[in-house]
Amino acid sequence: MRILTGLQPSGKLHIGNYFGAMQPAVQLQDQGDAFYFIADYHAMTTMENAATHRENVKNLAIDFLACGLDPEKATIFRQSDVPEVNELAWILSTVCPMGLLERAHSYKDKVAKGFDANHALFAYPALMAADILLYDAELVPVGKDQKQHLEITRDLAGKINDRFGEGTLVVPEVQIKENTAVVPGLDGQKMSKSYHNTLPICPPDTMTQKQVRKLVMKVKTDSTPVEDPKPTEGSIVIDLYKLFASEADVEKMIADHQAGGIGYGDFKQRLFDAYWEYFAPIRAKRAELENNLDYVNQVIAQGAEKARAESTKVLDRVRKAVGLR
Ligand code: ATP
Ligand code: MG
């Protein structure tokens, strides 16, 4: 089975990325032929400048390996190392109705958040479809925010097959894990790099443990007084805690909310402790990799070769089918 997923180098990787995409990717690399990529063309839709972009790509490559993606098992590569993906995106654009793009939530959300409504951001789903279809991917693990983009991908593959022949493109399945489909951010919206509401998997070197703890203390809560019972439904603290803590600890956290007498500061401290311990091995691995950039670069270079070999086959098949060759 061919598995594929990508993450954007648009800022520090956060726990939503981890549970929505990274953890499933690590699990799936043992179950099939996996392709995992750094979506650097996509990140250009919201990029600040070239230097930051380059730094973000480097950091994401390190994060991939620190989180457990294994170059012995999976092909790890950078999207722009296979520029032919743009050709497939163009071919897909020719069968992509405007209405499909106009209805895309992700585009509307980003524009509502103040990003420029550039053409690339609007056409993002066509490039994302090309990312997936260029590698004959059969299974794509993602967070729920990508559900609609995957539907568009399936739709476009179907249109190409209808028009140019069955088997021109492989129609992929999506995998969305119910309990980690949408990890909430500190403010309760979906955690997103571009919303500045994230809890990083590995904080940047410039950030102390104390500053990260402060972030956790910012998690949005209501104003129930310390002595009163606190709501458990829709509690961001509890929802985040569930990602890291044992079942027994989660039950205790819920019981303590219901009993009253304990303040949110205490609950957030428990959340911080569980989170900090959970990612300790990944932080350690990351620190090691920071000092071994030659290895990281070598992984990406090898991944590019493997990705190119696969993409060439698929693109040749598509070019022939649509009459470009
Ligand atoms: P940006 O704000 O730049 O779009 P992002 O934080 O949404 O960044 P992406 O790189 O767009 O991250 O997404 C990478 C993967 O992480 C996708 O599979 C996406 O579904 C998943 N993901 C992102 N945010 C969450 C979240 N809050 N919960 C679960 N999965 C998420
Ligand atoms: Mg996103």
UniProtKB/TrEMBL annotation:
A single cellular component GO annotation: cytosol
Motif extent ('KMSKS' region): 190-194
SUPFAM superfamilies per record: Nucleotidylyl transferase
GO molecular function: ATP binding; tryptophan-tRNA ligase activity
EC category: ligase
Keyword check for Protein biosynthesis: yes
Its EC number(s): 6.1.1.2
Top-rank taxon, per record: Bacteria
Classification via PROSITE patterns: AA_TRNA_LIGASE_I
Signal sequence bounds: none
Quaternary structure, from the entry: Homodimer.
Protein family: Belongs to the class-I aminoacyl-tRNA synthetase family.
Protein name stated in the entry: Tryptophan--tRNA ligase
Lineage of the organism: Bacteria, Pseudomonadati, Verrucomicrobiota, Verrucomicrobiia, Verrucomicrobiales
Gene coding for it: trpS
